[in-house]
Amino acid sequence: MPAKFSGGTAGLVLAARLTELSDVTVGVIEAGVLRLGDAVVDTPALMGQSLFNPDYDWNFTTIPQVHVSQRNIPINRGKMIGGSAGLNFMIWQRGSKQDYDAWRQLGIGNGWDWDGLLPYFLKTEAVHPGPGSAGVSGKFHGQSGPLPIHYDNFDTPLEGPYAQALESLGVYLNSDPEAGDSTGLFNSAASVDPATGNRSYSAVNYFLANQDRDNLVVLQGAQVTKINLTPGNPIVATGAEFVVDNITYSVNATKEIILSAGSIQTPQLLELSGIGNPNILKEFGIPVVYANPDVGENLQDHTHVTSQFELNDPTIPTINLLNVNTTFEAEEQALYHINHTGIYTYTISDVSFHALQTFWSPAELAQSLTTLRNEIQAANLSKWQRKQVQIQLTDLENASVGQMELLFFGSDITVTNSSKFVDILNFGSIQCTGRNISAEVPFILVHRVSDA
Ligand SMILES: Cc1cc2nc3c(=O)[nH]c(=O)nc-3n(C[C@H](O)[C@H](O)[C@H](O)COP(=O)(O)OP(=O)(O)OC[C@H]3O[C@@H](n4cnc5c(N)ncnc54)[C@H](O)[C@@H]3O)c2cc1C
């Protein structure tokens, strides 16, 4: 049987797809647990409330980062059946065509480009039209996949003026961001099921939907500590060790092992199993089974800055009003539970991606590109990484993909018991090219997230 670690976003999709074949049995090992009926997971408007809570979030932090005054930056990651999609912001958004075609440019073949992936994007989703989905063409929207997708049925009175403000700054309205160009401002779809008003994610729509299959077994609350590898040519992964309540167990796979523990812990598990940079493995006393200095390198993520605005009118219905106005809260609870609508189903809908050219003058851009080129030249990059940053540099110059993301959130994410604040989240990409990784984790993490 194939064994799978772990039961996150991608892991459960693979487990569900593989067990469509009755002669394949899949065992999934997941450190977190099933969070069915848990409001902070299910209820869209409560997004963010599970962050930093160790029951839901691995809650990693980086080592001190030189470029942000030596601060440790949090890295949230979902720890539950369904993984990070159980605590994410539910924005259902495809990248631009160029984002995927860049993989082909890097030489990754077998359909890992826009044309190759589009059929699978469509196969995943069941898009339900909503108030904001006018202009959305069927060609780029799947109708019958397992994951229900919906457009917000509740907006605060602030989304409209916010969109107008962006338009007045020259940001264009994109009526179908799923068609291969995700730049501009649009009304984003969300991974929310209109039939329940709840978050849709792989725990519900890929695991629960198939839990009666005899050939699918999911073990929860079990943390994999090592993949057992038999050295040789080829090296064979035969099973794994995992810990439940401080007791270590072993499991064998008769066919293969799929490692899907997310972008931080997948390389961590490879290293704990002896696949990685020999210098780092030796530092931690891990026998080297396969030397590969690229394991855990080249992490790219986006980080964000939140701008918070105080409203002149505190009666405007934002999520915070639920905390201070009991009548409003009771009405909205009823709407949510009876009709599956209202503010409790609220997700971020005003989303925009911008090329730097939108806000930077040609002189500012030219100066930054020169600095960047010099840094790339001086950096100790592998041939592959050099090719990658060259593609990214060209994307910057051509304004072909979004480099910056702005999200409007009709609530504040830091102040509680106030009705007066809304946030604008500004995301930018960071690339960790250096070594030095090691976030604080429950057991050895060989890497440190480096200075970006
Ligand atoms: C705060 C936040 C907001 C986000 N917002 C959005 C958004 O709005 N839209 C969007 O598209 N994306 C968003 N993302 C990103 C998206 O959720 C992730 O890219 C996606 O869920 C990653 O899927 P994955 O399968 O690679 O990993 P995950 O879904 O994280 O799954 C990994 C699983 O492995 C388990 N695991 C790890 N190590 C072990 C171990 N040793 N033993 C057993 N189990 C283990 C974890 O518990 C987890 O369940 C957000 C992410 C975060 C953190």
TrEMBL record:
One of its GO terms (molecular function) is oxidoreductase activity, acting on CH-OH group of donors. Coiled coil: none annotated. Pfam families: GMC_oxred_N. Keywords: FAD, Flavoprotein, Glycoprotein, Oxidoreductase, Signal. Gene3D superfamilies: FAD/NAD(P)-binding domain, Glucose Oxidase, domain 3. InterPro entries: FAD/NAD-bd_sf, GMC_OxRdtase, GMC_OxRdtase_N. Residues 262-276 form the Glucose-methanol-choline oxidoreductase N-terminal domain. Its cofactor is FAD. SUPFAM superfamilies: FAD/NAD(P)-binding domain. Residues 1-15 form the signal peptide. Belongs to the GMC oxidoreductase family. This is Glucose-methanol-choline oxidoreductase N-terminal domain-containing protein. The lineage of its organism: Eukaryota, Fungi, Dikarya, Basidiomycota, Agaricomycotina.
